[in-house]
Amino acid sequence: MPVIPTPKLGLRQQIMVLAILPFLLVVSATGLFMLYSYHVETHALDEQHVKRTARLIANSARTALLDGRIASLQSLLDTSLDREILGVAILAPDLKPRITSGDFKPTVFNSDSIVWEKSHVSARWPIYRYTNTAVPAERGTTDALIGWVAVTAAHTKILKTRYLTIAWGVLWAMLSILLTIYLGGRINRILLSRILQLRDILSTLDNHQWNTRLPDSKFPDWTLLSETINSLAQRTQQSFRKLQNEVEHSHRDLQRTLEHLEISNMELELARVEALSASQSKSEFLANTSHEVRTPLSGILGFCNVLLENERNPRRREYLESIRTSAEHLLGVLNDILDLSKIEAGKFTLRTKPFALLPVIEDSARLFAQQAADKHIALVVDAAPDLPCSVIGDPARLKQMLTNLISNAVKFTDRGEVVISVHTEPLDGDTVELRMIVRDTGIGIRPSQKQQLFEAFQQLDGSDTREHGGTGLGLAIVKRIAELMNGHIELLESGHNGSAFELRLPVTRSDEQSPPANKLQRRMLIWEDNPRVKLALQHRFEALQITFIAYDDLNELIAASSRDDILLLGFSSYADFAAHERNIPRAHIRVILLPSLTQVLSREDYLFLQKPITQQSLTDALFGSPPEQRLRAPDANQGGPAQILAVDDNASNRLLINALLDELKLPARICANGHDAVALCEQQHFPLIILDLQMPELGGAQTAEKIRENALNAHSYVVALTAHLTDDHNDCAPDVFDEMLEKPLTLERLSALAKRCLSHASLKPVALGESIQRAGGRHWLALEMLERFLGELSATKRRWQEALQNQGLTALRHEAHQLSGACRYVGVPALENTLERFNASSNVGQAMREGEHVVREIERLLDWSDNVELPLLFEDSENLMPRPTPSEE
Fold first, then answer.
1. Residue 355 is inside which H or E element, if any?
2. Is the peptide bond before 744 cis (omega within 30 degrees of 0)?
3. Which residues contact 625 (CB under 8 A, 6 or more apart)?
4. Are the CB atoms for 720 and 700 separated by under 8 Å?
5. How far is the C-alpha of 774 from the C-alpha of 825, rounded, in Å?
6. Which end of the chain is more exposed for a tag (fewer CB within 10 A), N or C?
7. Sheet holding 607-610, edge to edge
8. Which residues of the chain have pLDDT under 50?
9. 304-336: per-residue pLDDT in tens?
10. What is the pTM of this model?
11. Complete edge-to-edge strand list for the sheet that includes strand 85-91
């Protein structure tokens, strides 16, 4: 309804204004016009009077002026003076006075013949020689103009008359205004009395005195208004009487109804008390029963996990896995029932404490990462950059609510994505409202299903043929826990394109400071084929204050990258990654994001992270060691650096080797290509290196050659793995390999290989204790024999080198026999082990390679002898005995 503006003036004031203002305007305009007209008329009359006097004097003075009768002219001028004509003068043609009379005011005449002054007016008129100035002058005569007549007249009388006229006009206007005010005031008083009368009548009617009526009036308009109000009062009186009768009947009916309601309320209260007691008993029974069932079920799960750790039989493992899956599902159902019963029984408690917010949200989502990957849907956690690092709340209950929401979203989504968006809004002080939205692209929720959405034991599809399982407790538990935490949950969107649930919880910021931002020393390039995942990654980098360059096209990133960059690439599936893997350039760190890691468990050539990625895993990947230094961290129980390097481009083979090495508890590094292996060997020594013979880009032989070029692993034991192994495989093997083995590699073969190589690598060049033992405990004899043995090694080395150069297998075996005999009297375990491998070689090629190892071990002994003084090593021994005298010998 439009609002009617209230006028600034009342009705009476408006009447006064409308009565006076038009009259004032008319009177003022008329008076001003008449005054102006009178002024113009008197002004013109003054000018005419002065000009006429000057013209008459000029006509009378022309003859006397021509005759030179000055006295006649003076007399004429004197007689022309009166009360209005103040002065008269005869002027020469050049306007200089010749004869004056009276109070003549000299005036400067320009082109005008009339000049107005303050108190007088002056006029001039020409005097011509001839009466008819149109007749031409006689030849030889002077000009026709012989002078001027100037007249000065007073206009004081005219001014007085003008002022008097103005005074009468003003007096008349004031009288008119007073008359108008009087008439308007009279009308105002009459109207005011009528309005007050009307007000009193309406006030009386408002007090329910319906018999009151307005009296008749002699004014027709007022009579019409009175009749209308009287008619309205009469109808209102009739309606009021009718309504009063109805109210009395309704009151009697209501009285009877209230009596019945009071009886019903008493019955309902008794029924409510009984229902509450029964509900509480039911909840307590459910809580106790669920607890009693949950306890042995937890034991079943624990023993099942223990059996799975040691069970190798596939069928029995399948049975155990089925038991564990079913038990976990049953445990989840029981947990929901237990929580709901605790809430209904009033035994549900919250434990608030400071906790890291983002890890709780990420852990809740990662529980369903593999399930989402199996269904080929994207699972995204998009946290706002300004999300608090730590808050005060109940992390367990928060995780429980998020788990239920994400579980439903993944369960009812067959294609598309599930996005968990998290942000906060400020409330009061340190309190913020945590807003978490779980949005999916699943089957959606029909409008008719919204009412039962948050009710316990209610399912959207309760038929026997329903596709999705569940107990219908998830959303009910979420709603009740949210209410206990002073929050709430609501359905934001629903329809055929999915649904969205928003969970709002008030939390308090913790005093715990966020960790300082890390600074990348290298350029980071990111690409993600899913826009939602890409946006979530950008938000994480903004929160970590990490500078990055995002690309929409993978080819553009590949073209712009270099080996010093950090690449972070996200793929929607392993198939997409495999299709682009050949084009991915080498870089300092290559992080690959995949929905599932089942197909890359054994691969160590990239840093594989599973979506949704956590902030901790992201920072570990970016700010940890370079990939070649953390391809595989040794187990804590193994100790020491890795001693084995395994390289294979096939994921299944890498997985097998990794499993075998884990079984043997051997620290190792696993690579997927030769480039990473070469880079790793430039930084670390590996006694045993296992290479696949056939690999893309850089084959096994080429990889071994590059590894041998570095002094760090020039003497490592390099073994080649091949799928086809001939009888003379060792003879046909390239010189860079020490041994060739056929796939698949078994546990026994790998164990024997590691025992030979790693035991040799751990052996010292010289064992003093063994030397003393072989000398019968006589230290002086052990020292003498070791000095003699080391003194002959230089010549032995030259003979071995000549035999290797001449490919003389017989000479090599003779030298090996001689050297083996000499080693039996001294403690040189590493050389002895190398000679045993030489003697065990079955063909020329293997013997030549083992002979080179013998030469390298001799060089190792010579380097050791050059850096130590043997007598000093033996003189500190407690059992040092003096040398025997010649007689004793």
1. strand 353-356
2. yes
3. none
4. yes
5. 6
6. N
7. 549-551, 524-528, 566-570, 589-594, 607-610
8. 1, 3, 133-140, 462-467, 469, 625-639, 726-732, 877-889
9. 665 665 677 766 776 677 677 777 777 777 777
10. 0.43
11. 97-102, 85-91, 145-154, 120-128, 114-116
